[in-house]
Design goal:
The protein is of the alpha+beta class. It has a domain of 167 residues: Roll (2,3-Dihydroxybiphenyl 1,2-Dioxygenase, domain 1), CATH 3.10.180.10. 19% of the residues lie in helices and 33% in strands. The protein is built from four helices and 16 strands. The strands form two sheets. Strands 2-3-4-1-13-16-15-14 form an eight-stranded mixed β-sheet. It has an eight-stranded mixed β-sheet with strand order 6-7-8-5-9-12-11-10, with helices on one face. A hairpin with a 5-residue loop joins strand 14 and strand 15.
Length: 239
């Protein structure tokens, strides 16, 4: 019994603002449920959820989204659209000659608009990648937990991708990334076959640790890096 990656959750003081931003930028609908505001991703694109909380400070986030571009005009259009929707340019130490553009959404979450011709993200769709601060151990854990292929594994860099293709999820050790601050970003899993207990037992057997059970039945766990994630109860909705 396994789990499906339903979404990555981003906390925000006003979740409606980043939800509207990303819905406009990606052309998705916003679905409101007990967990917050969900932008379903379909079979090959990662879902995004925005929930009440605090986004943390710019530069300290441990998950970044990467958007792809078909050509330079498309990259410029995506950047311009993001600015019109309430995004802004941010400096996270990128060099002027680097071809990607670094922005932040209205909640302060950084993301990159990747240059055209990037072979690594070819065929991944508009939301090409979620990159995370983490170890090789975490990447291999998530490959097994989700049943996704390990498509990159060199040094401390790992990446996985659904057998159906689409958005990649990657891990790398980032210099200077704080680990003591609470992480306002987390994976949200839905149990396949509606068997939450089996899904929880399966990730624990792979090395996850149980942290908490919320009032709504959501089980909160930590992956081998100590990064929290949750498994929603059966019947909570799949978005």
């Amino acid at each position: 019994m396994g789990s499906r990656l339903l979404a990555v959750t981003f906390e925000a003081e006003n979740p409606a603002e980043p939800a509207r931003f990303w819905a406009g930028l990606l052309g998705r609908e916003v679905v409101e449920d007990a967990g917050g505001l969900l932008l379903p991703g379909g079979d090959t694109q990662l879902g995004l959820r925005f929930a009440p909380g605090r986004a943390g400070r710019v530069g300290a986030h441990r998950m970044h989204l990467h958007l792809t571009s078909t050509d330079l005009d498309d990259q410029r259009h995506t950047v311009a659209t993001a600015i019109e929707l309430g995004g802004r340019h941010v400096d996270v130490g990128q060099r002027p000659e680097e071809p990607h553009v670094v922005l932040a959404d209205p909640a302060g979450y950084e993301f990159c608009v990747i240059e055209p011709g990037n072979g690594y993200l070819a065929g991944c769709g508009p939301l090409g990648e979620l990159t995370c601060a983490g170890t090789r151990q975490a990447g291999r854990f998530w490959s097994k937990a989700l049943g996704w292929s390990l498509v990159w594994d060199q040094g401390e860099q790992t990446a996985i991708q659904s057998p159906r293709g689409g958005t990649k999820v990657a891990w790398d050790v980032w210099d200077g990334t704080p680990t003591a601050e609470p992480n306002p970003q987390r994976f949200e899993l839905f149990p396949e076959d509606n068997d939450q207990r089996a899904a929880v037992d399966a990730v624990i057997a792979l090395g996850a640790a149980r942290l908490d059970v919320r009032d709504d039945g959501t089980v909160v766990l930590a992956d081998p890096d100590g990064t929290a994630f949750c498994v929603r109860p059966a019947g909570a909705g799949r978005g």
